[in-house]
UniProtKB/TrEMBL annotation:
Gene3D superfamilies (UniProt xref): Quinoprotein alcohol dehydrogenase-like superfamily
Record bears the keyword Metal-binding: yes
Name this protein carries in UniProt: Alcohol dehydrogenase (Cytochrome c)
Record key words, sorted: Metal-binding, Oxidoreductase, PQQ, Signal
A Pfam family assignment: PQQ
EC supergroup of this enzyme: oxidoreductase
GO molecular function, one term: alcohol dehydrogenase (cytochrome c) activity
Span of domain Pyrrolo-quinoline quinone repeat: 50-347, 482-538
Organism: Bradyrhizobium japonicum
SMART domains reported in the protein's UniProt record: PQQ (SM00564)
Entry EC no(s): 1.1.2.8
Signal peptide extent: 1-28
């Protein structure tokens, strides 16, 4: 929950006129030639495809295609578009497997398209319950395995679809949406296991990561992010706080195929004020290293303890091999919501702290302990009960869930950051009611403030993760930056994320803006790149909503000349070079 809107306003914005049958709509018909997805293909994906959330298990968000490059990107033009038929935040990357595109949209919809022409094959529409209420009615994509697709739904089911027809193969309930549990992530598929994590931390739930058999939907294991009695880390909670401790795991994890380890990000503790759940509160605001065979926690790193700012750290760290101080470090790189750019080292038994520095201004941290990597809190900027406390950055952090990217050519990390935002609230002890928001403050007490004299808000940053130096930065004067980044071997960085509806390409080495295209709405989703018959394409969903719109609404109240109106409505845009 990231807004000062009322519950009724959330309900209206989150449930906009799209409740329809779970069926296959009329289209061009079944897909005749579909390439089954194997473990080998996921571990070593063809450059022409985009079959995982960030294309590869390491989460780098990098395409090795280079037909579109710094010299010709000015000739990029739309080759087809496709309206999704729904509004709200479109956050999923277009997934492409040998010429077939699968797009997940808000309201439980999956569309299968010819990735070259935009012609529809089939469309799945899920029946969503009339009483469904959640804060983020969106989807971040479908997972692929063999001849099926896997969708995690906002009414808390995992659904397997036949990739050729869109027909339901199995449908498994994960938890109870009436208790505030829901899902928005793309399932991570590893060796026939469909792995998901739940949303709903603001409803006082207990977070988890769970795996299901891709063949029949049977649950194989479930690991709670909040340790129960007798489990390691349980002593970091007091009393029964752990039972409703939050720790949602609502973004897709990354995977080290060499060590067979999943790295999964975990969200904030519940409710927000830390004094209402004393202790470090493992494993909230952490990254977990999980064994995919059984879900066992191998090790972890907690980015910040006793979270009190709603700073989820759910974006999984990127797996990057770095040369630092004369040695090769198998690193985990994570520009955090807590405003710290984290560089960690992953080993089979431990995650080591390497370095960390603020990538936007913050008054919450006095520093980081050099040995443990534990941030040192300034108590004057830590929310508490009965007193309004202000802090920078805001609830949305230095970077929210939109993903950073790493270029294997430049060695730089590209961060969709937000600067000059602050927030605050007054902590309040409120009773927990299943299925209702449980924030530890009143929604109307939450706001977003801009720093006096600020000349910009969004920043696309380029960092060298080895030296800790910022190489370049592009500022957005009248908008936050709320969209994921993709880098390509053409020395380009693609990103949307602004309220002017533009999709942009930057020079990955210098930060020079090389190309932009106005779209129908604001862009929250992540770009993907693929190739068919020798032509490279760039694809993106345009569709503003959810937190991007909530930030926009909050900015409009700051009297800084920004209006709240950004047109909504989802459209898939696909670009290629002019012939």
């Amino acid at each position: 929950m990231k807004t000062s809107m009322t519950r009724k306003q959330w309900l209206l914005s989150g449930f906009v006129a799209f409740t329809c049958l779970a069926s296959t709509a009329a289209g061009a018909g079944p897909i005749e030639n579909y390439s089954p997805v194997t473990a080998q293909r996921l571990e070593n994906p063809e450059p022409s495809n985009w079959m995982l959330y960030r294309r590869t298990y390491d989460g780098q968000g990098y395409s090795p295609l280079d037909q579109i490059n710094t010299s010709n990107v000015k000739n990029l033009t739309p080759v087809w578009t496709f309206a999704t038929g729904v509004v709200e935040g479109h956050e999923a990357p277009p997934i492409v497997n040998n010429g077939v595109m699968f797009v997940a949209t808000p309201m439980g919809q999956v569309i299968a398209l010819n990735a070259k022409t935009g012609d529809e094959y089939w469309r799945y529409k899920r029946q969503l319950p009339d009483d469904l209420f959640q804060l983020h009615p969106t989807s971040r994509g479908v997972g692929l395995w063999e001849d099926k697709l896997y969708l995690a739904t906002t009414d808390d089911h995992v659904v397997a679809l036949d990739a050729k027809t869109g027909k339901v193969v199995w449908d498994t309930k994960v938890q109870d949406y009436k208790k505030g549990q829901y899902m928005t992530l793309m399932p991570l598929i590893i060796d026939g296991k469909v792995i998901v994590g739940g949303s709903g931390g603001e409803f006082g739930v207990r977070g988890y990561v769970a795996a299901y058999d891709a063949k029949d939907g049977k649950e194989l294991w479930r690991t709670y992010t909040i340790p129960g009695e007798g489990e390691p880390g349980h002593d970091t909670w007091q009393g029964d706080d752990w039972k409703n401790g939050g720790g949602s795991a609502w973004m897709t994890g990354n995977y080290d195929k060499e060590t067979k380890t999943i790295y999964w990000g975990v969200g904030n503790a519940a409710p927000w004020p830390g004094e209402m759940h004393p202790g470090d509160n493992l494993y909230t605001s952490s990254v977990l290293a999980l064994d995919p065979s059984n879900g066992k926690i191998k090790t972890y790193h907690q980015y910040h303890q006793n979270d009190s700012w709603d700073w989820d750290e759910v974006e999984a760290p990127m797996l990057i091999d770095l040369q630092r101080n004369g040695r090769n470090i198998k690193s985990l790189v994570h520009p955090g919501r807590d405003a710290i750019f984290w560089v960690l080292e992953r080993t089979p038994t431990k995650i080591n702290y390497v370095a960390g520095w603020p990538f936007v201004s913050t008054d919450v941290w006095k520093g980081i302990d050099a040995e443990s990597g534990r941030p040192i809190v300034d108590p004057d900027h830590k929310p508490t009960v009965g007193k309004r406390v202000e802090f920078c950055p805001s609830l949305w952090g230095g970077k929210d869930w939109p993903s950073a990217a790493y270029s294997q050519k430049t060695g730089l990390v590209y961060v969709p950051a937000n600067e000059n935002f602050c927030g605050g609230f007054t902590g309040e002890k409120l009773p927990l009611k299943p299925g209702e928001l449980w924030l530890g403050t009143k929604p109307e007490d939450i706001g977003l403030k801009t720093k006096p004299g600020a000349d910009h808000f969004g920043e696309l940053q380029a960092w060298d993760p080895v030296t800790g130096k910022k190489v370049w930065q592009h500022n957005f004067p009248k908008s936050q930056l709320f969209g994921s980044v993709t880098a390509t071997a053409g020395d380009l960085v693609f990103v949307g994320g602004t309220n002017d509806r533009n999709f942009r390409a930057f020079n990955a080495k210098t930060g020079e803006l090389l190309w932009e295209q106005k779209t129908n709405s604001g862009i929250m989703g992540m770009p993907s790149s693929y190739e068919i018959d020798g032509t490279q394409y760039i694809a993106i969903q345009s569709g503003w909503g959810v937190d991007a719109q909530r930030i926009q609404d909050a900015l409009a109240t700051n009297n800084i000349g920004i209006e709240s109106n950004v047109p909504q409505g989802g459209v898939i845009w696909v670009f290629a070079l002019k012939k």
